[in-house]
Design goal:
Structural class of chain A: alpha/beta
CATH class of the largest domain in chain A: Alpha Beta
Number of helices of chain A: 20
Oligomer: homotrimer
Number of domains of chain A: 2
CATH superfamily of the largest domain in chain A: Metal-dependent hydrolases
Strand order of the largest sheet of chain A: 4-5-8-9
EC number (chains A, B, C): 5.3.1.12
Pathway (chains A, B, C): Carbohydrate metabolism; pentose and glucuronate interconversion
Shape of chain A: globular
Pfam families (chains A, B, C): UxaC
GO molecular function, one term (chains A, B, C): glucuronate isomerase activity
Distance between the termini of chain A: 18 Å
Catalytic activity (chains A, B, C): aldehydo-D-galacturonate = keto-D-tagaturonate; D-glucuronate = D-fructuronate
Chain lengths: 477, 477, 477
């Protein structure tokens, strides 16, 4: 899908660079979208029903939006965010939308504003600019579009030019939605919609109900998780099932980047302590760290790419968590150490080109000091795109400015949208492509790279690199 | 006061953005100055006497200037900085000025240079460029101006277009200077000159003479500080007196951003240990951390905005401290942690929109990783302007580039000059307005924000936001 | 040597700033090269033999190149990097060159690409652009040049316009190569090629064979290193020998910036523990930290400038180290703390203008928070140029943007190439001069600095400052 509105959006203002950037951007914009990591509900595409009302589609589930209003004193319940205890929240979509529009100025200068504006214009063809005064008009236009069949998920998927989309599931998921997608010719290995193996809820002893989750893991896998060996076997089984559902990668969301290579007896003792409910915070950290070594070894066997997302303090806003649960915008980043933390993993497997580890960060201070030197010095490492709070035009630019000189372009993994918001996928990729075009245009304008090589590079960044790093070997290229 | 010299100072060089920036800057430049935090001596405005000679006005008390010369081997005594033991220092203003001018090249590229140049031209109408060769001529021109009545503090205050200026006093201050200002129609609640409650010298057990200060607090407040409860009562009394003198905020300068919510018995035990001279460094840190919770609770009662200035290693240059005392340029920043440090305060009151906490930093590495996510996720938090070493064009720009995408503009608090140098107030605000104009111009040039919204935003940043965040409800708007 | 190719390389793209930058750059480009710190083999210039084949000259010893290929799965042995155990590696220069050229795209956007391209064109006059297709042609052109007498080291040294080049030797080095240079009129005090005193291998107890090295130090110095006092005497003797060979500085590569001022008995006890093989990691760290105080005291006696290079985790890639040894690209930076670490040194001697300490970093997060405030507040401190992973156009620019506002230009020490690659010296200095020209051009374009002062400043940065800070008092200026 080509962007039709504000065609110079985010391109450098200086006319010479803008002209170069336009040409480079056009090459990127013509590429299919590879979305190797995100949190879209696979049921959306499996069922292919019409989206709900505009507020439930675009506001209620978008924690970028609800947290900004929270920061100005508007409680999430007034925007319809469901409560843990079922206590009432606003349910009128139009009221939610108006309330949101009344605070639209808060988003000036934020990516949320760009994403939503471009989604309105490019996805839904709504050209009325959003404002408190136009809230109802925009709502009505959107609601009308959502009722049309060409705005159902599969139709949009095709229109968006998505070649492959990876969702993210727990090992406890029965993968039924992916089975439906496969049955419809949309899923399975090499398919358009695939899954990702995300085992945090059965690995992190500090996760709500970890031990009960491990019990369920036994049921889902048919392996006895009463022992550490059985637990590993269960994880291996689920990985095989995920691979059969098209997964090419696993994903690991840990508070830190610590890794640890325990001997099996030590690991088993830790596991047993956790299962008996006697693990403390240090045990939980050690177990998470050790399991990254186990997963690396499994990856060497089964070929899954490992994604590591460290550095989030989950549920930092405790009242928000108590009232609304996880994943509603209450997390905050913390300083993250990679050089010593990753050493055990890198000592064991860092020079093995058969392993692919994609490292993300919420701490941009590590770009030049840690991430670029590590990715530029170990065969197994690639750098993932700036993530979450860092998925923004300014940071995407700083990422290239910071990591390229030491890691080059080819130790990065291409853009990853990491989003729950299906309709925002094209604009998120579009923003990254525009920023990369601007960065490459500057290299050309400063005589640091010939234009033909810049042209090759931007296509690599937009399409070839994510396809190769994340092992999507199907598709049309 | 409009700037008449170098009208494109600090605006982006690219002509398209410069044209946009000029228009935006003009809107900001027309706004009154809100100076919600600084260290101007209120006696200056209470007494309204002529300023001393140029060196004593502009060089001797400006630790930005004296520390730069110190860094090149010129001892502060040679620039007239008073000594703790009264040992002799240079006293001839002209000699000090010549010595300073001889090192003027050291300030190339620094904000000190911009501030002083603009002060000379815009405040004093001295257009001879400063250099070693022109030192005497500039000195004479300045000295002549300082003798004229229109260069007295109150006349300048009016010419500067200051709507409100907050000074900073200890609870031990008798507020007599502010009483004089109120009597003259310049001070008191809603007045032009107000105070700020800064209790470090009675809160920080590591402050010189803390326990003696607490004894004096009893005298000033009429409360018995022999007990912790009495100590809290004394602080509350002084806050009431400060509010009566126009204060709308408190200010807290701590080495770290740690907060702690002790139960009253624990807090009292710590207090008693300190009063008996038995507190160690950890006790002092815990007490400071806990007192921030106490002050937050007091703020919920009395409405004072809390300012938190963490991260300075005070008196790092020990010889300088031994020879010249505090506040002469011997402090250095240290890495500052906010995410875990502020958690106790945020758990208790972070979601309460009745509380306003303005967070400052000397550690720009926290902009995207900690400060923007926190301010963008808690109702009570606002981000203060880059402070001290960070109050400079490059960092003001990086601040906007780093925090806006996550916290927006409206979780920031507007510019704060934090200066002791009364005559530099207009240029400091002017620099911030120019940098904001340049940043907004880039957003417009990159099609990220329509020009009319940028125009509204720059006025908000220059005037409306600081006025609202710091609760200045008087004035003419 | 003037650059003839891509004359606007790295200058700002905006035409107004580019025009200014060109003029400023021309002033810098006309200056001789001062290379106050690097790792060129002095034997190269002492013997003045023809260089080996292109691959052995430009690829095999350049760990920037070999580590990038390693990061993409090409083992260093396939590029001819020697092994510790003598196991075979690729020896055919042309094969190595082809293999390298096949991966040339990996270097897009890196300084290695700029350095190599400019070296090919400006040093060797090879204008065929390097690519997989042209690998043989470029190789042949290069090989032909290398056989010509004007491409011998001394001829190039003269053509490069190097005024002085400091190499780096261990106290265990007999300085024979420098004696040869002195005998030929190239070395000795005030000469064109001088040495630097780098004692890590006899100071760092964790260095391979530290104790045996200390035994050898006794032999080389004629002092008995059986006692701590004798050890210090031996170091003083070697410093005197180095000064006689032209050294003006020492250099210290430590994992951290920690300093410590032990009393002599404690230091002697630590030393003895190390010599008996009983020192642990904390002992080694304390001894390194303390020795920086000893070296500062020696510098106050003998005048050597102290260079401190902290923050490298040596041999992080353990397999690379096991296979190929030190200095082949296996190091990685770590977070580095200066404010508390340097306090003991600064408390003792930081305000003494007779001492010069040049601080380097691999952690750019310390630029504004720690390094600029320290260098801008202590007479003894200067900031070294961005080093190693940070020696790149983007970081050189960020360095100026980050440190200038607090430390000015005159607390920095000028560019330091720190390279083993003799032929890359001109381009490395050229890159820094271009970046400084661009930065100063922006200051001029934004009316922050008059053009005449920018012109004086760029010559100071390129020539006068390094000459003065590193005490090169000979030469033609």
């Amino acid at each position: 899908m080509r962007t039709t509105f504000r065609s110079d959006l985010l391109l450098p203002a200086e006319p010479g660079q803008r002209a170069l950037a336009r040409e480079l951007y056009a090459l990127a914009a013509a590429q299919p979208i590879i979305s190797p990591h995100g949190h879209v509900d696979p049921g959306l595409l499996a069922e292919d029903r019409a989206f709900p009302d505009p507020a439930r589609l675009l506001v209620v589930p978008d924690h970028y939006l609800t947290r900004m209003l929270l920061s100005q004193g508007v409680p999430p319940a007034r925007l319809g965010v469901p409560t843990v205890d079922g206590s009432p929240v606003e349910t009128d979509g139009r009221v939610i939308w108006r309330r949101f529009a009344a605070h639209w100025h808060l988003f000036r200068g934020t990516p949320s504003r760009l994403w939503l504006e471009q989604t309105l214009t490019d996805v839904f063809g709504v050209t009325t600019p959003l404002s408190p005064a136009t809230a109802d008009a925009v709502y009505d236009e959107l609601a009308a579009r959502l009722a049309e069949p060409e705005f159902r998920p599969r139709a949009l998927f095709t229109r968006f030019g998505i070649e492959v989309l990876a969702t993210t599931e727990s090992p406890l998921d029965d993968l039924g939605r992916h089975a439906k997608l496969a049955a419809d010719g949309w899923g399975g290995p090499g398919g358009r919609v695939v899954t990702t193996f995300r085992p945090d809820d059965v690995v992190d002893m500090e996760f709500d109900n970890w031990s009960a989750n491990v019990d369920r893991l036994a049921e889902v896998s048919g392996e006895d998780t009463g022992t550490y060996a059985g637990y590993l076997a269960a994880l291996r089984r689920r990985r095989a099932a995920f691979i059969a559902a098209g997964a090419t990668s696993s994903d690991h969301g840990h508070p830190t980047a610590r890794t640890l290579d325990l001997d099996p007896a030590q690991a088993a003792a830790l596991y047993d302590r956790g299962r008996r409910g006697r693990a403390d915070a240090a045990d939980a950290e050690a177990f998470r760290a050790h399991m990254l070594l186990e997963f690396a070894r499994m990856s060497l066997d089964d070929g899954l790419v490992m994604q590591l997302h460290p550095g989030a303090v989950r549920n930092h806003n405790r009242r928000l968590y108590a009232r609304h649960g996880r994943d509603v915008g209450g997390d905050v980043p913390q300083a993250t150490e990679y050089v010593h933390g990753l050493a055990p993993l890198l000592d064991a497997h860092g020079n093995d080109p058969r392993l692919t580890v994609v490292l993300y960060t919420l701490d941009e201070d590590t770009f030049t000091r840690e991430l670029a030197p590590l990715a530029g010095g170990y065969a197994a490492l690639h750098l993932g795109a700036p993530w979450w709070f860092l998925d923004s035009p300014e940071v995407l630019r700083r990422f290239r400015e910071a990591v390229t000189e030491t890691a080059g372009f080819y130790n990065t993994a291409g853009f990853v949208d990491d989003t729950r918001a299906f309709c925002s996928i094209p604009v998120r990729h579009d923003v990254a492509r525009r920023v990369d075009a601007g960065f490459l245009a500057r290299l050309v304008a400063e005589h640091r790279l010939p234009e033909d090589e810049a042209a090759e590079t931007i296509v690599d960044l937009a399409y070839r690199l994510p396809r190769q790093v994340f092992k999507f070997t199907g598709g049309h290229s």
